[in-house]
Model the fold of this input.
Amino acid sequence: MKRLYITIACLAGLLSGCNDEFMDRYPLDQITDENFWKTAQDLELYCNSFYPEYITGFGTDWGTSTVAPYGYNEAIAYGDVISDNAAPETYSKVAADQYNGYVGGGSGSSGWSWGNIRQLNYFLDNYQRGDVAEDVRNVYLGEVLFFKAWDYFKKVKTFGDVPWITHALETNSPELYAPRDPREVVMDSVMHILNQAIEFLPAKGEEKTDRLNKDVALHLKSRIGLYEGTYRKYHPEIGLDGTAFLSASVEAAEQLMAGSYSLYSTGNASTDYNDLFATYSYDGNPEVILWREYSADLTYGVAFSRYYAQNLRHRHGATRNLVDEYLCEDGLPISQSPLFMGKDSIQTEMMNRDPRLPQTVANFGTYNLQEGVQGANNAPLPNIPGLSGNKCPTGYRVAKWFLNDPADWDRVTNGMQAALVFRYAEVLLNYAEAKYELGEMDQAVLDNSVNLIRARVNMPPMVLGDIPADPELDGNYATYCDYVPDAVLREIRRERRVELAFESFRWDDLMRWKAGKFLEIPVEGIKFVQEQFPGVIVDKDVFLSEEGYILPYYQTLPDGRAFDEEKQYLFPIPIEDLVLNSNLEQNPGWESN
Done:
């Protein structure tokens, strides 16, 4: 799933449904709705336009598009800037309970957009019109059902109840003025069409070059099943049982685990994890299930590599809260391990830690830009406030996804860094968590999931009956949530946070665990050492906590981030859509805003 949908992207939108714009743009003697839908090539051409819509990777060109309603840049690496994993220079209004994008945004804004669903349904209304063999057309049916399931999953995560639309609507369709359908109905429908997609899509290796296969759909099923199953458990107020979804997640994961996938490893625990995210190609990588390719040869690329290396998008840094959650090399939390060297500097706190920490967050002097390259003053010391250049507000400069190749930076919008979209490690983590939530945890489950991931970086395995205590993390749950998870689940969640950091999972995880209050944990950065930053002035350029940690939002957000549990687990529907359809009801807590 790489070059094909890129090379034909110029055809996207050519057949966007039977509407006035379509008829105005294309001569009737070349392509019309009447003479389309006749061949397998027609079906393939129509489906091609969905690939870049859903498999966004790092975006395209300058990569400036943002994800509605969350407000972060669409590149996978930036999704965590609204979570407790990261702090952007300009604080996230979503994370600070200041979101108001649904006011004045107009109908169809803020994520309440249905154009793609209409195009998917238009295919479903028409794909059987031609004389195409059933087994052939069902492959494209599987693609459309996959994309529709993925789209609806995103909408349910964002809004909860949403309308389930089964055909392409016109301006006079009564469904335009119908109320939302219950979450239960929508998610049952999502799983139904996703199972159909799995049935219709070809097995891995039997698909056309760069097109969807069963494994991609199974991966999505494992993700959706875990999300919905745990959301229902930890949000009992919605009154839904998530057992069937958790079982579906396990079923999908087990099918993938029985296949040929494995974790990428060359045996070098100090580099393999970072290398996984800094590459031009994933061809032959045993961990990768879905990725997006970029190619300068096709004059099709993105400025991600250049902008990420120079910290130009969001100008963000990792948080102390994330860094503190990494274990020491002995498998113990920093509060319990004799190997932990303290927090007197970033150099000391990085010592004897999980190898993924220094491969995710740059220690001073690592992951440098070459001298003379624009933005090179971002390293070897991060550009904390008070220094020139693009800021890293916490001092924890993110190294994950950093491709150390000036040639790619110089390509600018033709950057070729590959985007990893679905990978096997997530499947293993989905499996472990779903098995725990189903009450089916045993040592074999851990050995076949979490412990494989730990083994890649030479971390000690998890052993049932010998899970280390972590009073600090348990204390955070007690303070910011209304529950403290069992130690096994706590460690599975830790492993997920560490392994998937800066892959745009953390917000969804906090939402489904009903742990949104974790956003209220004070945002802190590195321990400030004056000798390392002689020109930076305390209480003018930087502000520090009592312990000496940088406080990036001391002036801009003095009361810290906030999370309203009565409303923020869902986003609001745009006001204009509520006016246009009086049968729509606003999500709880947003009515008076």
Summary: The longest helix spans residues 134-159. The first strand starts at residue 66 and ends at 67.
